[in-house]
Amino acid sequence: MTARATRSTGTASDDEALPPARFAFDARTWKEVAQLLGNLLTGLAGFVWAALWLFPGLVLSFTVVGLPLLAAGLAGTRWLGRLERRRARRLLGLRIDEPSPLPRGRNRRGFAGWTRDTLGDTVAWRTTLYAIVRLPWGVFTFGVTLAALFVAWPVLGHLARGLTAVDRAMVRGLLSPSSELERRVAELEEDRGVVVDTAAADLRRIERDLHDGAQARLVALAMGLGLAKEKVLEDPEAAARMVDEAHGEVKLALQELRDLARGIHPAVLTDRGLDAALSSVASRCTVPVGVHVDLDARPAPAIEGIAYFTVSELLQNVSKHSRARSAQVEVWRTGDRLLLQVRDDGQGGASTDSGSGLAGLAERLGSVDGLFGVDSPVGGPTTVTAELPWRSRGPS
User: Fold this and answer.
1) 100 CA to centre of own chain
2) Does this model's pTM top 0.70?
3) Do 295 and 333 form a contact (C-beta atoms < 8 A)?
């Protein structure tokens, strides 16, 4: 009797020591379960959004309403993709880089240009496909996960791992950034805008300089010579003075034309290369400038010209803003890159903030795959470094 009581007591004690039944899942599994249950809501929202603009836009695509409707829908779909990448990052631990934005250059030609660019956005179209296929997938994963949660919870961990593997594949395949080729095309589109803007600005500058400078002097010169022609018989002395004044105007007009030609492409650069051309620019700087060019060959004319005008503008900044006592220019080649560096011992504080001349230089270099860096703490010194791709000169 005692033995049976002891065994009975021992059995009761063992039962009391057992922990209650519970789900033995780690945090990762619960995040995956949350992802699968949330697929229904996000899939429904994405499908409704796509249906609101995709089908009406396709039907009306032959009218003036359809294409802008499609473009507006695609623009909003990019925002949907951003939310889904964020959800995958938080619940699945899947980090997908954000795609590059569409080019937003200043030459997008208004609403029509924006519509055309947005309709060609492969990222947005892939996100639209993602939004459409997610609804049936969301219904399936919600139903299976909910049933397993209450009926087959011991296998829920393995089931969630398998289902979220499909989720990961969808996100990687449809929400990842564009391929390298697509990204490069977008960069080239943006660079083309910078080149066009720069060329237009240069043409306006040349037109303004001609109109306000040499052209005005030549008009005055023609009028003066006309008056001198009328007075040559009546008042030879006055005519001689007017001709002398016209001679002075001719000299000034020629000097302005030379300066303008130097601003377009200096002859010394074409004839003698960067070393001589940069030495000429340095001689016009208001502070002493040392120039050291270490090149065993000459780059392509376009690259040579960009390097020349970059150094020229940087030395103008030294003259106007730096309060420096001296400056140094170095140009050299490393592999397939042409490097140039301009240093001064001035007051520093230079930056590439939007609207500054340095920002414009950075854009110009970026348009040819160049790099531009500024190190200019307050109090100085300032060091500006630029890199350009080395492109050899063609056969002459």
Assistant:
1) 9
2) no
3) yes
